[in-house]
Amino acid sequence: MGQPSDDTDRVRDGAERRLAWLDRVGACLEMPADRRVEVLEEIAAHLDDAIDALMEEGLPADQAEREAMARLGSPEALGEQLRTTHQATRRLLASAGGGVWTGLEGLATGWVILSAWVIPLWYLVLAVGAFVGGTSGRDGSGDILMLPVVPLLACGALWLAARRATQAVARASWRREHAVRIPIAAAGLATIGLPILTIPAYQSWPSLLATLAMPFAFAAGAISAGGRPDGSPWIALHWPSRLPSRLKVWWGLVIVCAFVWMAISVGGYPGRSGSSQNGPAQPATPLPAPPENGAVDPPATLWHASGFALVAPTQVAPNRGVVVAGWIAKDGWTLIELATDEVDWSTLPGVQLELWRSSTAYASENPTLVEPQRGPYRVVPVPDPLATPRIAVQTGTPGGIGYVLFVVSIDPVTGARTVVGHPAAGRATFHGTPLDWFAEL
Amino acid sequence: MLVLTVIADGELYGYEIAQKVRERSGGAFAPSEGSLYPTLHRLEIEGALEATWRESDRGPRRRYYRLTEKGQGLAAEARAEWTAFVGAISGVTSGA
Question: Which residue of chain B comes nearest to A94, CA vs CA?
């Protein structure tokens, strides 16, 4: 009666011994899990064949098993030989190209997917802000508009790109993610960080921080690619396609609503007369010459420039100013919404402002101020139906594509010009590299 | 060379390769089974062998190896070198 039980125990013991032996081989194989399983499966099949053959030759099962394992040698030596065989330098070099390609794919995918989540949510927040605050979302949420959405999206996309690139390189080079993630993270830090530090751009604290975060997002993506020691991912991502179908419908509605809101929001600004102005298709009217101070009233409806952070610099420096980009002046007037207005206009009664425009729209560290555009331009506080500080400025410049504007007050008595702004000027737009920015500080 | 020559006759999996070498040498060569798989995998990485998983008529699935064109060239080259070497040794020993 005890015989079957003994046999079962012996078989179980043998299987456990074999598994333990294979585990010792597998512990040396630093390669992706699926590859490791394949290698071990091949060795296990070899062991089975050898044991069967030895048993057919008359060896008892235990002895056949020991002999078969002995013929393969030390499991550590076998594992080490297999590891070095598969981790050939040529395989690593060949995997680099695939890793770059997969990374670029991941970047594009991440951008699209994150945009599908972030942009509707962003506009949803604005819509809620408008509903709660009784203003248009854009006006009531100026600080939200100041969020550097593009670099933040880029951070997310880079994170995903690095994860995918690391997994692809590990897979193609037969290494574990742990073995390649640090070099990939370092390479990403260098290749993304160097251009960011050396290419001049318009900087503000939020955009600067988000931009500087981009190489670190890539590095974090690479390092997180290996997951936890037990192989589970650090973060389980749930893309929209994996949502339950009911949630997908709701999410689709959110996206549609958000884009409708976006269309309404971007399409036009309801002017002071209450009429709505949509789109740039206005009848061509001759532009008035830049007026003498007080000569012309602003028209009833105005194009606007939003996101205008009027925190003027404390001194006129070539690369300091306030950027207005892509806004169109109707009839020579531009309504500037002061998304971040730190100027106390009540302390400046009777002050005239002038806007100094640089000769180049962007990327000029040493702009020449264009004389005909200097003004003084008339600056009119606009009665504000939307509770947002705004001024109308007659620049006489239609279809502007970008300006660096210096806001300067002119003393009505002495005519002395001073730059208006909060002394801290913490959010003044700055043109230069991040290194220049820190040097300025 | 032994591995390439044995596989030249047709698709084989690892254990069969070791057996064939042993059989053909009349038991004179018992290849180290521990170095067999690193050798097979290295030849595969170098493009001399192709491997495919296939169900076996007995037991678990096996990984079958076959020579590629490059592998056939390498096998022929190795055989020629060996023949020349044996000829040279024979010349020396028969002259003595």
Answer: B45
